[in-house]
Write a structure and sequence with these properties.
DNA-binding region: 34-53
Distance between the termini: 76 Å
Number of domains: 2
Domain HTH tetR-type: 11-71
Pfam families: TetR_N (PF00440)
Structural class: mainly alpha
Protein name: TetR/AcrR family transcriptional regulator
Radius of gyration: 20 Å
Keywords: DNA-binding
């Protein structure tokens, strides 16, 4: 018995193509990604892909916009659920991992200027807002002046980035490394605030 093919709505088809693009990029890297490889992965024709995305760059920009929006929504929800200062640090470290860890699509796309230009102002604004939020929470939690809290946040950000990069290169357990990084940051902050 032949199965009847289900026609996807335009939004569902665009999402399917973006999902397949993300899978291909994570598996093979950005340099080898083509519209033709996407069509093959998605089991559609090349002209169909071009009906949705007029070029490789336009498709990758759409993928970046979607992934960055999802990243933002997930981070916002996690921050709103944070109950303790440690929870806030955990959200910040996790966010750094998702934003910077090798092997994920978001950092691959953000590092390409012709793709990242579509979210550049949003990246800057969100970065400033996140830094201000973390500085204010750190200053409040440890009764620090803003300059000292700013230094602590910058040091902590560096530790989170380094841990994300290290984990990606070594294929370590991400959640375990995030927890260890949070422990490291909290211990460091507590040591610095005693001085």
């Amino acid at each position: 018995m032949l199965r009847k093919r289900t026609r996807l709505t335009p939004d569902a088809r665009a999402d399917q193509l973006l999902d397949c693009a993300a899978t291909l990029i994570c598996r093979n890297g950005l340099a080898t990604f083509t519209i033709e490889s996407l069509a093959k992965e998605a089991s559609v024709s090349v002209p169909l892909v071009y009906n949705y995305f007029s070029s490789r760059v336009i498709l990758l920009q759409a993928l970046l916009k979607r992934e960055y929006a999802r990243f933002g929504e997930k981070t916002e929800k996690a921050v709103s659920n944070a109950k303790t200062f440690r929870d806030i640090v955990h959200v910040a470290v996790t966010s750094n991992f998702e934003h910077n860890a090798p092997g994920t699509v978001l950092p691959m796309l953000i590092t390409q200027p012709e793709i990242a230009c579509v979210i550049q102002s949003e990246l800057k604004k969100n970065g400033r807002n996140a830094a201000s939020f973390l500085i204010e929470r750190t200053a409040s939690h440890y009764q620090l002046d803003v300059n000292r809290a700013r230094l602590i946040v910058e040091l902590s950000k560096g530790a989170a980035w380094a841990a994300a990069e290290w984990t990606g290169k070594r294929n370590n357990n991400q959640e375990e490394t995030i927890d260890q990084t949070v422990d490291y940051i909290i211990a460091g902050i507590e040591q610095l605030t005693r001085a």
